[in-house]
Design brief:
With 127 residues, this protein is of the alpha/beta class. Helix content is 50%, strand content 17%. A 5-stranded mixed sheet has the order 1-2-3-4-5.
Length: 127
């Protein structure tokens, strides 16, 4: 049986904490589960916590970018939090800038960023 990554709901934000080494099947399952949950809950934000991820390769980098793209299609912003310095260095060295993926240092800052983005969107719409 394959471990599925739990997806927690905090208000209108979904939180995905990656605690396991994801293989291809696990990533595909996570993408589907998350897309379903974004639609089912009407979430406006997704936070992916990678604090427990020690090693990032191009596969994980592409996974994060893909999840962000899928979420954006479903009207939710994605923020990746908890990136270790070594992981950031590796991503840059691999040439993976994670285009379109916002980052924040920790969960608290990630939630604040999503709230700020929401406020900016409301202000723009009101003009």
């Amino acid at each position: 049986m394959m471990d599925r990554v739990p997806i927690l709901k905090l208000g209108d934000i979904l939180i995905v904490s990656i605690q396991i080494d994801l293989q291809d099947q696990g990533v595909l399952a996570l993408q589907e589960d998350l897309a379903d949950k974004v639609v089912a809950t009407g979430a406006r934000g997704v936070i992916i916590d990678i604090t427990a991820v020690e090693i990032v390769d191009s596969f994980i980098g592409r996974m994060l970018a893909t999840i962000a793209a899928i979420s954006r299609m479903l009207d939710a912003e994605t923020v990746v939090v908890g990136m270790r310095p070594a992981v950031a260095i590796t991503l840059v060295e691999l040439g993976l800038s994670l285009g379109g993926v916002r980052t924040a240092l920790n969960l608290e800052k990630g939630v604040a960023l999503l709230n700020h983005l929401e406020g900016a969107q409301i202000a723009t719409a009101a003009r």
